[in-house]
Fold:
Amino acid sequence: MAGVVTGTRPATKPGSARTATRVRNRDGWWAALFLAPQVVGLLAFLVFPLGFAVVLAFMKWDGLGEKSWVGFDNFTAQLSDPAFGTAVWNTVKLAFLTVPFGLGLALLIAVALNHVKGKTFYRVVYFMPVVTSSVAVAVMWQIILAGGDYGVLNRTVQDWFGLTLPDWLEDPTWVIVAIAIVTIWSSLGLNVVIFLAGLQTIPPSLTEAARIDGAGPVRVFRSVTLPMISPTLFFSTVVAVISSFQAFDQIYVLVDPDHNDGARTIVYQVYDLGFKRFEFGMSSAAALILLALTLLVTLVQFGVQRRFVHYDS
Amino acid sequence: MSVIPTGVSLPRRLGGIALHVGLAVGGLVMLFPFVWMLLTSFKGTHQMLNAPLDWLPNPWRAQNYPDAFGALPFANAYWNSFYIAALNVVLTLLTSAMAAYAFARIRFRGSGLLFGLFLATQMVPAQVTIVPLYLMLSELGWIDSHLALIVPGYVNPFAVFLLRQFIRAVPIELEEAARLDGAGRWTIFWRIVLPNVRPGMGALGIIVFLASWNSFFFPLIFLNSPELATVPLLVSQFAGQHGATEYGLTLAASAISVIPMMIAFLIGQRRILNSMAMSGLGGR
Structure:
C-alpha cells in the first residue's frame, strides 16, 4: 500500500520555478476564498465587537442618549465598587472549587472505569448531565438544594441523621458551594470520557513493564499513567478554568444574585450592568477585566505546564 | 524476570468489587436528580410539603404534563430549537471545513498569524463581546429574531481547529493524484478531502448541535417574544413564573425539555461519547 502511494509524488521538472510562483499566487486566491466565510464572520462578530467593547469601556452610554468619554472612570468605578470586589472573589472561589475537585473526581472515576468491565453503562450514566441543558439542570437541582420543606437533601439529612444543613441557595457563604456542586455534577461526565480516552491511549506494555519492574499500583499511576495523560489533563484544566470564569446559566436560574450576593460573579455583573441597568460602558469595563483575568490565568498555566506536562514527540 | 500470576488473585477480585460499588454509588448520585425530577413531575404541589417526605407520587398526577404543555408554546419552542441547531450545524460544518482546508493544505502568506488569531479568539469569553454584539445586531434589526442566533453562531474557531487536525491526517498523496487528474482546489476539497474526514465532521456536528440546542445565554439576551423562544429559554421563563408555587408543573416542563434529548443520546451514545472524547483530546 505504502509503495503505491509514494510513487505518485511528481518529480520536480527543471525550470518549474515560474510555474511554482504562479501556482503560489493562485493558491493565495484559493486560500482567501476558502477562508472568507469564517474570517469575515470572525472579524464581524468577534474581533470588531471586541474592539467596540474596548471603546465602550471608556465611555458613558445607556444605548440611547449621548455618548461621552470618561477615560478610566468605568474601570476605577468598578474596581472600587464593593459589588465588583465580591464578584471577583466569588469567581475565583468558584474556579478553586470546581476545577481541582471536578477534575480530580473525573480522573478518579476514569481510572476506576479503566479497570472494570461494563464501561459503556457507566460512561452513559455519568454523561447524561452533559447532554442536559443547563436550565433543566438548574431546575432539577433547585428542588434538591432548596431550603425549607421543598429541598429533598436537607429534609432527608435532617430526618435520617438529625443534622441541619445550611440553606444552600439563600445562605451567602454556602451558595457558591451549591453552584460548584451543580457545575461539577453537570460537567463531570465530559471530563470522565475525555480522561478515559486518554488513559486508553497508554500502551498496556508500558504499565506492564513498570509492574514487572516491581512498581505497585500507586507508583505505576504516578510514574507512568500521570505523565502519559498530562497533556490531556492540562488541556482539560485550561478549558475548565475558562468555563468556570464564564459560568452564568446555572447561577441565573438557580439563584438570583440580586438577592444573594454570594452568587454574584463577574459574568453576572457584566449582565447586570449591561442588560438590567443599561450601563454599557461600565458593563464593558467589567467584561474587559474578566478578559484580562482569563488571559492572565491561561498564560500562567501555559508557563507552569512546562514543568509538569510531558509530550512524547 | 519475575513470574506473572495467571489467575485473578483474591485481593484483585475484591478490588474489582470495591471499584464497582464505588462507581455504582457515584452513578446513583448522577441519576438521582433525573429520577427526582420525574417523580416530582407527577406530584401535586401540596404533596411536596408532606411530612415525612413522600418519595413516590400519591396519587400519580399525569395531568402536570398536559398542563405544562398547554401553559407555554412548547411545540413551537421545539421547532425553534431544532431548526436553529440544524442550521448552525450545516453552516458551521461547511464554513469551518473550508477554512480548515485552507489552513491545512494551502500555503499562503500570513497563514500562521491568521491561525494564531483564530486560536486566540477562543479565549475571549462570550460575555466580553455581548454588549457590542447586541448593539450591532439591534442596528441590523436582528434583535428578537432568530437571525441573531443563526448568523453569528456559525463563527467557530474551535471547529476550524478540530477539522484542521483531521484534514492534516488525510494522506496528501490522494490530493496529488487528483490534481494530476486535473482536479481543481474545490473539487479536491469537495470530492477527496470531505469524504475522508467524515468521522470528524460527524463528531463536530453532534457537538455543535448539542451546544446550540442547550444554549441559554444568547437566546436570553437576544429574544423577547414568547413564540420565538427556544426550549431552555421557555423552561427558564416557566420556572420563573411557576417555580416557587407549582413545582410539579415546573418539573414536568423541565422533563419535557430533557426527555427527547435523552432518548437521542441513548440511541447514539457510542457515537456521541466517542466524538466528545475526540474533541477533548484536541483531535490528536
User: Anything to note?
Assistant: The CA atoms of residues 78 and 84 of chain A lie 6 Å apart. Chain A has two domains: 14-56, 73-308. Chain A is about 75% helix and 0% strand.
